[in-house]
Design a protein that fits this description.
Strand content: 15-25%
Oligomer: single chain
Strand order of the largest sheet: 5-4-1-6-11-8-12-10-9
Order of helices and strands: EEEHEHHHEHHEEHEEEEHHEEHH
Largest sheet: 9 strands, mixed
CATH topology: Spore Coat Polysaccharide Biosynthesis Protein SpsA, Chain A
CATH superfamily: Spore Coat Polysaccharide Biosynthesis Protein SpsA, Chain A
Distance between the termini: 54 Å
Number of domains: 1
Shape: globular
Bound molecules: uridine 5'-triphosphate
CATH architecture: Alpha-Beta Complex
Helix content: 25-40%
Radius of gyration: 20 Å
Length: about 290
């Protein structure tokens, strides 16, 4: 594999049941973290990592995402008329971030199936996958770190986090060994989905950023549905491992599970504290709470 990573796939067709009732009508990916939909953080990360073409996998009731990344004629005209130049720039910015295409997943048949829906739009080149509900605060951006490893090593790369204790059972976990030269790189020989703590082959948990070889599409097509009738992305990557190199990379930065209520609360507090316009005021407010 030698081609450049130009395209990023955003699976966003899931039902978001953990966030009901908020996600009954509003797509989970459109929930605001401070003042920006969580998917926009991922799109901005992709662009800052050199991605040129964003492919969002959508499903029923997800039209708000397409509207968000488009011009809102009435809103823009009204803001212009009222002389609200700053807000106009914010509104227009979302629409001019990147070239965005959409593919539809007709039924939420799993993450692997959602990625497979991007096959025609990606074509025969390596590509990134960003799970929009994993919001990552990192500099350089997490995806850029993975692309750096991909360019150096020439294989697929999965972002990982080191998890101590029983929390590991919520993740896909890598088997293999740490690279001798770079301890952040993990030479992957296998992976287990959501193992019990005693069965976990390592502490390396897979999170929502990937750089993948296009061969994974053919392998996903051959993957049979697993638990719950879903086609898992990890099953496709497991098949890929038998043919090509796959690496884990312990990215530098902090990841928040914004698809989960508690994770969203953590992200909200920490992102709000970093905002120059009200971070200090918010800090004093938190300090003043009788906790
Ligand atoms: P999740 O399992 O976190 O999302 O999938 P979900 O199913 O929407 O959420 P819960 O568990 O019911 O609350 C990770 C990502 O994969 C997408 C989701 O939209 C989310 O961004 N996904 C998942 C799909 O696009 N299609 C699927 O069939 C499943």
């Amino acid at each position: 594999m030698s081609k450049r990573v130009r395209k990023a796939v955003f699976p966003a067709a899931g039902l978001g049941t953990r966030f009901l009732p908020a996600t009954k009508v509003i797509p989970k990916e459109m929930l605001a973290l401070v003042d920006k939909p969580i998917i926009q953080y991922g799109v901005e990360e992709a662009i800052a990592s050199g991605i040129e073409h964003i492919i969002i996998i959508t499903g029923r009731g997800k039209g708000a995402m397409e509207d968000h990344f488009d011009h809102s004629f009435e809103l823009d005209a009204m803001l212009e008329k009222r002389g609200k130049r700053d807000l106009l720039a914010v509104s227009r910015n979302a629409a001019s971030l990147a070239r965005i295409s959409y593919a539809r997943q007709k039924e939420p048949l799993g993450l692997g199936h959602a990625v497979l829906c991007a096959k025609e739009l990606v074509g025969d080149e390596p590509f990134a996958v960003i799970l929009p509900d994993d919001v990552i605060d990192a500099q350089p951006p997490c995806l850029k770190q993975l692309i750096g490893v991909f360019e150096e090593k020439g294989g697929s790369v999965l972002a990982t986090m080191t998890i101590e204790g029983p929390g590991i059972s919520a993740y896909g976990v890598l088997a293999g060994s740490q690279d001798r030269k770079n301890p952040r790189i993990y030479n992957c020989t296998g992976m287990v989905e959501k193992p019990k703590l005693e069965d976990a082959p390592s502490k390396q948990a897979i999170i929502g950023r990937y750089v993948l070889s296009p061969r994974v599409f053919e392998l996903l097509e051959q993957t049979k549905p697993g638990a719950g009738g879903e086609i898992q992305l990890t099953d496709g990557i497991k098949a890929l491992l038998k043919e090509e190199k796959v690496f884990g990379y312990t990215f530098a930065g902090k990841r928040y599970d914004a698809g989960d209520k508690f994770g969203m609360l953590q992200a909200t507090v920490e992102f709000a504290l970093k905002r120059p316009e009200f971070g200090e005021r918010f800090r004093s407010y938190l300090k003043g709470l009788n906790l």
